[in-house]
Amino acid sequence: MAGVGFQRWVRTLSKGKISGISGLLPACRSGEILTYFPINIGEIAAAAKKYNIRVEDYKPIADNGEGYGDYPQLPDRSQQDRDPAYQWDHPDLRRNWNEPMHWDFDMFIRNRVDTSPTVVPWSTMCKQLFGFVGFMLFMFYLGDKFPAYQPVGPKQFPYNNLHLERGGSPDVEPEEVKNYEI
Amino acid sequence: MHPTTLMYTSSLLLMFAVLLYPLLVTFTSLPLNNDWASSHAKTAVKSAFLISLAPLSLFLSTGMEAVTSSWTWMVTTTLDITLSFKFDHYSIIFIPIALYVTWSILEFATWYMHSDPLMNRFFKYLLTFLVAMLILVSANNLFQLFIGWEGVGIMSFLLIGWWHGRADANTAALQAVLYNRVGDIGLILGMAWLATNVNSWDIQQMFILSKNLDMTLPLLGLILAATGKSAQFGLHPWLPAAMEGPTPVSALLHSSTMVVAGIFLLIRMSPLMENNQTALTLCLCLGALTTMFTATCALTQNDIKKIVAFSTSSQLGLMMVTIGLNQPQLAFLHICTHAFFKAMLFLCSGSVIHSLNDEQDIRKMGGLHHLAPFTSSCLTVGSLALTGTPFLAGFFSKDAIIEALNTSHVNAWALTLTLIATSFTAIYSLRVIFFVTMGTPRFLPLSPINENNPAVINPLKRLAWGSIFGGLLVMLNINLFKTPVLTMPAELKLAALAVSILGLLTALELATLTSKQFKVTPLRTPHHFSTSLGFIPAIIHRQIPQLTLLLGQKIASQMVDQTWLEKTGPKAIANATTPLASATSNMQQGLIKTYLTLFLMTLVLVTLISAT
């Protein structure tokens, strides 16, 4: 088995198609790993064929030194956004076999980010939600400033304000306390 | 030991043993018989309920409470943890109620999940959940409570995602786990603070040792935990999403037992909160906002289970309000009465859903009071109890809460919101009854409407008895810890009843509009706000995962390599030296004036430096 791999490696190197360290890798048959950003129409066509997209649909990710190679820029739509009634090859994933995967496919699975259109635009949603929360916080602040309570008065005690119970002497005449008015 | 104490503690531990036995049987490799669910699991819960009545009657007649410490788990120099159960007023009343409700739900589930090939596993999960919940409720230290807390969270995940082939169910289960996890941050924060400052996780010790400490930080942690577990505003979206699970799961976990765990934690820790006005105000305002917001969302939902889920969330907000009023016992009473009628509402909706061949949209139901009279009656009784109809179960707890709210020194806006939410409760309850039971059927003629199964009728009957008499029984037999304010103006006394009747009349008015050509569409903006649940799922569930996943992906695959291979190496050198090179070369253009200026500047500098 190792002998077979070695033979394949020797054959690839001798064909001389791929230079550098890529030539040493066994998977490196004609353009299986990421190649460079496509420049001319031939490379664009080859890349579109490799990724199983039409040449009209193929658009490489802009070359900003981030190392995307010739990977296509697919529309940022989530799997949840796709038609649930269509007969997909993998109905739970809403994907067909050998379909090109978005670079952020793991973000766009049905359990994660959903890009389906919303009922109202994004700005309206944010304004309404944060406006609601802000309004509530402001009203709670006002409610704290002007609380609701029942009218109360100081506690009243009998027996001349509990003169004896509060340790007053039984000999001293306590002052008359009237807690009512007629 | 005194024989009464022995009987008390051993019957409670026997109850645990009875519940654990069916679970342990499933860990052997022997196959279970087909009716293991009804013969073992349901019977175990029924027996556990009957066993738990003995300590309950002891408690009610003598006021006996007990703390049982069974086994020392670990002992360190500063902290020791034991397997310790606290059977006090709260747990002794809650345990029989939880077991009664679970017994009814399990019996119902034998009918509801009959066609499920993994019904035995379903019952095993429900039993495991029940054991975890009882551990949570009877825990005497925070470690044991945390075990129960996480246990109910995990079982919630497994049960919500029961139909795991459905992507929406998986998403909902994930939501439940993640939101609960955010709440757990608070719980662990509180536990860590208490462990380091009070050196104990034992409830009695914590109460004594924290008398003179500023408890704001751990209390905020506990409130965050309750926000996550009990679906308060901010961490609430998981509760309506949890309706993806089967109806028995919704009835048990997401109405009666699991969601009240957060409130129960705050009730247990209420002596810590009594003197902390910040924590109490936060509970009050958060609860008021929750109850109002979720009641608003419930008004426009069309899925019967979602309406009941939002109703649960609204009642949980009310319980939080009660804690904010420093009335933990009233919150506890509401937990107990709420369990009865909310579980019954879920079982009625399950009966209706199965009868209409898994139809959950209320716009496609109708006329069921002729076709499923028992279910409709129970639905009506449950809704009446929910709205606080006098002398049904909900009245005793809800009216007491509203009276306490009206006579306390409270945030006026919290008071307003709670009363509005109480009227909304009546509105959406009538909406459910109107769409489900009244009018003419809006479903297909060939529907398997059958409520003639004792597995449906008996649980509903039992929970109906509980919804009617439960509140009265509990109120007659307990002593209130805090003296309620009994004298108040008539307007305040009747406030709850008045707003509920107002809501009922509004809903009736709106219901009559369905047959009149009044206005084609409702007011768009508030309708969209309510139907889209305040846009919170749309914004939060898209924005935050997108940012974190995108950032993670970019950092992992692009940014690290690009930074170390380009931006700190070759490109950095280029970016640093290019401006310097261009500045230098710009100076040396061959202009004599530039050279003379530089010569003069150097001369001046040298003169100045040599002069000093």
From TrEMBL, chain A:
GO cellular component, one term: mitochondrion
Region (Disordered): 64-84
Origin: domain of life: Eukaryota
PANTHER family (UniProt xref): NADH DEHYDROGENASE [UBIQUINONE] 1 BETA SUBCOMPLEX SUBUNIT 8, MITOCHONDRIAL, NADH-UBIQUINONE OXIDOREDUCTASE ASHI SUBUNIT
Protein name in UniProt: NADH:ubiquinone oxidoreductase subunit B8
Phylogenetic classification of the source organism: Eukaryota, Metazoa, Chordata, Craniata, Vertebrata
Gene name of the encoded protein: NDUFB8
TrEMBL record, chain B:
Reaction catalyzed: a ubiquinone + NADH + 5 H(+)(in) = a ubiquinol + NAD(+) + 4 H(+)(out)
Domain of life: Eukaryota
Membrane topology value: Multi-pass membrane protein
Principal location: mitochondrion
EC number: 7.1.1.2
Role of this protein: Core subunit of the mitochondrial membrane respiratory chain NADH dehydrogenase (Complex I) which catalyzes electron transfer from NADH through the respiratory chain, using ubiquinone as an electron acceptor. Essential for the catalytic activity and assembly of complex I.
Protein name in UniProt: NADH-ubiquinone oxidoreductase chain 5
Native source species: Gadus morhua (Atlantic cod)
The organism's taxonomic lineage, starting at the top: Eukaryota, Metazoa, Chordata, Craniata, Vertebrata
